[in-house]
Amino acid sequence: MIINKNTELEAIKKTISKCEKCSLHLTRNNVVPGEGNVDSPLVFIGEGPGADEDSSGRPFVGRAGKLLDKMLKDWAGINRNDIYISNIVKCRPPKNRVPTDDEMKSCIQYLESQMLVIKPKVIVTLGATSMSYFTNKKKISESRGKFYDWYGNIKTFVTFHPSYLLRNHSMEKGSPRWYSYMDMRAIGVMFRALQKGKNINEVVSAINSRMKESGGI
Ligand code: URA
């Protein structure tokens, strides 16, 4: 059976828009299901909507989102519209606190359904919350710049959250921004290789060698 990804994702969005499974629905203005190219080999997943996302219903449109767009464009050579972006939770946690385990548990089926429809080759996790859901890793400084296995053939690639970089400006070698630069360059290479239909395992092995040689990990 041929499934139309957009139709399937619209159906998931409709369910999300009515969701009252956790208390975040009481304070939200809009749900933020996710957006972007549903045929992209890469999906980027953050933690949860902030104030700008809550008022617009779109992911990563505030300060962190603007930085993400710039890093994608300047460092990875990727246009935001060429990838899909979403979050672990679809409603804003008050005062931008980290979502609780119960909130994440209530919400995660939506993200999993979205991923099963989109079937990306790689999920790029932005920040600790997304990393720990997808990889069970705890230390981003040790886990970033590397691939992990998720379900089936889907890999994850860990990098810093752009919000963290808004508080860390140094581009000195070994700084979070410098490592993000290395990650984004690798992400650009993997995006173009996967778009050309290169085999995921070959792409992973080429990126791993590149990261080792360049001091990115
Ligand atoms: N931070 C996130 O994790 N997600 C957004 O959509 C915006 C900021």
TrEMBL record:
Name the InterPro entries on file.
UDG_Type-4/5 (IPR051536), Ura-DNA_glyco_family4 (IPR005273), Uracil-DNA_glycosylase-like (IPR005122), Uracil-DNA_glycosylase-like_sf (IPR036895)
GO molecular function annotations of the record: 4 iron, 4 sulfur cluster binding; metal ion binding; uracil DNA N-glycosylase activity
* Primary enzyme class: hydrolase
Domain of life the protein comes from: Bacteria
Record's catalysed reaction(s): Hydrolyzes single-stranded DNA or mismatched double-stranded DNA and polynucleotides, releasing free uracil
One GO BP on record is:
DNA repair
Keyword line: 4Fe-4S, DNA damage, DNA repair, Hydrolase, Iron, Iron-sulfur, Metal-binding
Whether DNA repair counts among this entry's keywords is yes
Residue ranges of domain Uracil-DNA glycosylase-like in the record: 33-185
The answer to whether UniProt assigns keyword DNA repair to this entry is yes
What EC identifiers does the entry list?
3.2.2.27
PANTHER family referenced in this protein's UniProt entry, alphabetically: TYPE-4 URACIL-DNA GLYCOSYLASE, TYPE-5 URACIL-DNA GLYCOSYLASE
Similarity section: Belongs to the uracil-DNA glycosylase (UDG) superfamily. Type 4 (UDGa) family.
Give the protein name, as stated in the record. Answer: Type-4 uracil-DNA glycosylase
Q: Which organism is it from?
A: Geotoga petraea
